């Protein structure tokens, strides 16, 4: 996913300040360049809010992108703008990627809950059988 994030960052820099060059190190910002926050709605397996935080190296977040509304917040300039059309497919792909991660985590938790419930039921059944056998 990192190449997609770099593509998004380059496009946003061009959109925000077309007169300035894109920082030459943008493709080296591997650490802390992509993070997301997810607010879950019932039944809990689909994200309702996905925010992409783009950071410059180890600095604070420069751009926040709401992948649902497709709006950018330039935190440095406190300016809001719409996502450039050219990166909407890329942002949708990133949003879907986050959705797959959230779904996989939710499914793993549900599987664990079911396995725990099954083991508990089996233990109860064994206990009932032992009580019956001892009577």
Task: Please outline what is shown here.
This protein is an alpha+beta fold and 135 residues long. Helix content is 46%, strand content 21%.
Write the SSE topology.
Blueprint: H1 2-16, E1 35-40, E2 47-55, E3 61-66, E4 71-74, E5 79-82, H2 88-134
Antiparallel strand pairs: 1-2, 2-3, 3-4, 4-5
Please give the alpha-carbon distance between the first and last residues: 63 Å
DSSP, total strands: 5
Series of H and E elements: HEEEEEH
Biggest sheet, open or closed, and with what strands and sense? 5 strands, antiparallel
- Structural class assignment: alpha+beta
Mean pLDDT: 80
Strand order of the largest sheet: 1-2-3-4-5
Shape: rod-shaped
Low-confidence stretches: none
Portion in beta strands: 15-25%
Tally of separate helices: 2
Give the C-alpha Rg: 23 Å
The percent of residues in helical segments reads 40-55%
Architecture overview:
This protein is an alpha+beta fold and 135 residues long. It is 46% helix and 21% strand. The chain is built from 2 helices and 5 strands. It is rod-shaped.
């Amino acid at each position: 996913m990192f190449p997609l994030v770099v593509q998004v960052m380059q496009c946003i820099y061009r959109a925000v300040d077309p007169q300035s060059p894109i920082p030459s190190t943008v493709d080296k910002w591997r650490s802390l360049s992509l993070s997301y926050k997810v607010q879950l709605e019932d039944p809990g397996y689909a994200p309702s809010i996905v925010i992409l935080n783009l950071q410059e190296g180890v600095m604070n977040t420069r751009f926040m992108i709401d992948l649902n509304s497709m709006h950018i917040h330039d935190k440095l300039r406190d300016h809001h703008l719409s996502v450039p059309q050219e990166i909407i497919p890329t942002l949708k792909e990133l949003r879907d990627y986050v959705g797959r991660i959230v779904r996989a985590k939710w499914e793993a938790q549900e599987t664990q809950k079911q396995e725990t419930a099954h083991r508990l039921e089996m233990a109860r059944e064994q206990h009932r059988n032992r009580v019956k056998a001892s009577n």
